[in-house]
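Please, is this right?
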Amino acid sequence: MAGRKPNRLERINTILKAYVDADYREEPIPIGQFLSDPEYLGRVTGNGKTVYPYWKSILSDIAIDDSRFLTVLTGAIGTGKTRTAVAAICYGMYKVLCLKDPWEFYGKQAGGKIAVVFFNLTKSLSQGKGYNILQSYLLSSPWFNRHGIIMNEKGANPRIEFPVFEFKSGSPYAKGFGFVGEDVLFAIMDEVDSEMESDKQKIRVLKAYEEAVSRLESRFVRIAKYSGKRETLGRFFLCASKQEKASFLNTFIVKMKNSPIIRIVDAALWEVKTDLNFSGETFPIMLGDLYTPSKILCIETERGLEIDQVGMDKAVVDGFDIIQVPVELLERFQKDLVGNLRRLAGVSVNYLRKSKLFPSEKHLVDCYDPAKRDPVPMHTIEVGVNDNIDLAKYIDFSAIRIPRHVPRYIHVDIAYSGNGDALGLGMSCVSGWSDRVIEDLKEGGNMKIVKLPIIETDFGMRIKARPNDEINLSSVRKLIADLKIVYKFNIRLATYDYDALSKESQQILNRIGIKSEHLSLDRDPSIYRGFRNLVVDKRWCCHRDEYLHFELVNLEDDKEKNKIDHPDEVIDIEILEDGSTQDVVVKGSKDESDGVVGSVENALRNCGDVPSKDFTTKVKGSFPVQDKARTIGSLLSINKTLVGDPKRQEDPKGTDVDFKNIFDKSQRRKL
């Protein structure tokens, strides 16, 4: 009588066992047993009882799925992220030690050691939290003790070493930082995203971590025999609690989140710590964004605290996320909503912009006039050093609405190489005056009316060299000269930020009658802060320039360094063809904003005397908000009063050029 044929599952298990027998000298046990058995990690986990069910499920997934070797553990503070990552690394090391030959397993020649790297910002390996937890786990295990060598066993800091592994520090503060040539199979990045640490050092650690990820992919990822997938025994972890302001690691997560090699675990306190015995009753919190604060969606009634259903419905319609929080935590969230969203819910409180120059994007949006067209619709103009280019051709002069005889002020944020930097240029003018009531402390606190200038930016321009090329700086100074000589703009001042590099341009412009000097926005952060105050006061007017807006809205004000700068990378929102959105990471910059803000500063510094009393009387009531056309007409009238009518009528095409007695041809060629 023929025996029973094995079913499909039995056949698969037979095949898998054959693969295991071929590669392993000892068949690895499941991770559940590894965590609970005293022979392995059971002695430090209370036979597995101290590992929360939430993490057991995550660890099981990490152990089984060899195709996703990069795991981000984020969320609430104090949920055991680091210990979870270390336990997973221990299991990975265990599986490697079970192999007959780790190097042959990956088709590599034997030699060297496999690196286990701890990326952090400590000065030595022994100071790192993750390394010390790993050593305590390994030393507690009889199995690892038999396969390793215990060093300094009788001393204060014993450690265990292995012939196949070496433990390395991934801190820029440690000696020998860098992993070119290293065979990194396991890594953890932890204790990096502290707000107390230097952004420069954080970025160095992150770049080294990214390089190690790429090296793992190239050296230790192979096509699995039984599944055909790209798999590895290696495991990389990134542990980060949510910060009060946007974490620099967020950009890394956004860049990687659609990759097939990554898993992201974002856990709230009550999801992990089931031993806190929550009743199951919850209350809702609306998660705000950059400009709308989060809030508890509850209202006080005669019956007590009840859910604000109207607020709930509005939040859903407006597209805000809502989380349900255990009612036992209500009092804590009422006392500190922001802090506990971060600490307990594991939510980045994105609307807290403590380091941002502009407290709200709305301040900028309120200064954009929808009736004003952008004279330079091309976001970035790419050029080369040998290009015979006329930058004025990129400007639609019909979109510049303030008469050309009104004094204009230009600033150039200089750059020339094709290394990613761009040259920014802006032109602005005084377009009117605004009454403001202030308290005169010298006069005993009496109130008085003062007139403050309103600045309008004509245009901003961003010029970038093609890769491995340069910007011809003479084309920029020729543009400034053409604006005055050819297109008849009353250019009163043109400034440059890089004095040494722009000295020749300043000299040439001064020689042909255009006052030119040095102005540094980097050395004087009060310029940007003054511009912010101008924007908040709604005394700046501009068209909607998307690139300029992108730069301005992401500027950071570092009070400790007394510096205004852009972030290295920015998380932005991309609108897809189907109308949905996705997060993308783009390089931060402030080239065009430097040009525009510098030109605004020049206009403010040189706006001259306030208008006469007759002028003030004439202006009153000239700006009905509901009538855009009338507002623009009033601005033109005001400017004639300010500076007088031009001596002759402008050519509307901008070609009324007669510079015979002003600027000879030989001088123009020198530009």
